[in-house]
Structure to design on (58 residues):
């Protein structure tokens, strides 16, 4: 019984670890994509209208 509980706990830890790894990878890729699109948009605005100040959302 104790062995089965330990096995279940190990499975749970493995699942949580893989989920957190997936989540970290997804959030980092999302962050880099957002950053790239923001850079592209700011460059577009700067090229199109250099007189008008562009508010950057942090």
């Amino acid at each position: 019984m104790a062995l089965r509980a330990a096995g279940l706990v190990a499975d749970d830890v493995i699942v949580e670890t893989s989920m957190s790894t997936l989540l970290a990878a997804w959030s980092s890729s999302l962050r880099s994509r957002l950053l790239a699109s923001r850079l592209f948009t700011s460059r577009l605005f700067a090229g199109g209208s250099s007189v008008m100040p562009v508010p950057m959302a942090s």
